[in-house]
């Protein structure tokens, strides 16, 4: 009973999170999907992966890929104007995807894809190396830190789209 209540509470919490964004079915679906996924993950951790050790190697990679794509799928419901639009997008992805346009898209957004690849590669660096970099950055003079942050911000600004995208919560 206690574990079931935990799974149910995860679902209810995310449903409420969806309703907090608006009383539209698309937000309820978004919350239900996330709550269901959290419940399934907790169930998996409790009964399948009984050890407290984190998954490593391919299992960790697979978990990250599945989580990323699931969250991206859920964002369709969150950002679309209505559920019919989501249905249309899913239909087009499943039955009208134009594979021949992929190279053109990659070339058009090569800087963005490069940043994504770099970020993913950085994610897999050993924690000890990341700690050394953090220590090195922390030990730098404030002027040098400001310079590094400015360069990173300039690179990010160069990678953004030309269109101004308002903060997501301005829509609510």
Percent of sequence in beta strands:
under 5%
| Alpha-beta classification | mainly alpha
Low-confidence stretches: none
Spell out the helices and strands N to C.
Answer: HHHHHHHH
Number of strands: 0
Largest β-sheet summary: none
Q: Average pLDDT, to the nearest integer? A: 86
* Principal-axis shape: globular
* Helical coverage, percent range: over 70%
Termini separation? 37 Å
Radius of gyration: 21 Å
- Please count the helical segments: 8
Could you please describe the fold and organization of this structure?
The protein has 172 residues and is mainly alpha-helical. Helices cover 76% and strands 0% of the residues. The protein is built from eight helices and no strands. The chain has helices spanning 2-21, 25-47, 57-79, 83-95, 102-108, 110-123, 127-139, 142-159. The longest helix has 23 residues, at 25-47. The chain starts with a helix and ends in a 13-residue tail after the last helix. The mean pLDDT is 86.
Q: What characteristics describe this protein?
A:
172 residues; mainly alpha; 76% helix
Quickly describe the structure:
76% of the residues lie in helices and 0% in strands. The protein is mostly helical and 172 residues long.
Write the layout of secondary structure elements.
Elements: H1 2-21, H2 25-47, H3 57-79, H4 83-95, H5 102-108, H6 110-123, H7 127-139, H8 142-159
């Amino acid at each position: 009973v206690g574990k079931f209540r935990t799974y149910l509470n995860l679902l209810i919490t995310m449903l409420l999170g969806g309703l907090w964004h608006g009383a539209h079915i698309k937000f309820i679906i978004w919350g239900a999907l996330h709550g269901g996924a959290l419940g399934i993950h907790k169930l998996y951790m409790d009964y399948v992966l009984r050890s407290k050790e984190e998954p490593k190697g391919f299992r960790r990679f697979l978990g990250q890929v599945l989580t990323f794509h699931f969250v991206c799928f859920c964002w369709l419901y969150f950002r679309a104007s209505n559920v019919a639009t989501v249905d249309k997008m899913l239909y087009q992805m499943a039955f009208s995807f134009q594979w021949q346009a992929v190279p053109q898209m990659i070339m058009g957004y090569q800087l963005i894809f490069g940043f994504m690849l770099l970020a993913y590669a950085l994610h897999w660096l050993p924690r000890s190396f990341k700690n050394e970099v953090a220590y090195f950055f922390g030990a730098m003079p404030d002027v040098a830190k400001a310079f590094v942050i400015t360069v990173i911000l300039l690179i990010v600004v160069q990678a953004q789209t030309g269109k101004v995208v308002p903060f997501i919560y301005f829509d609510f």
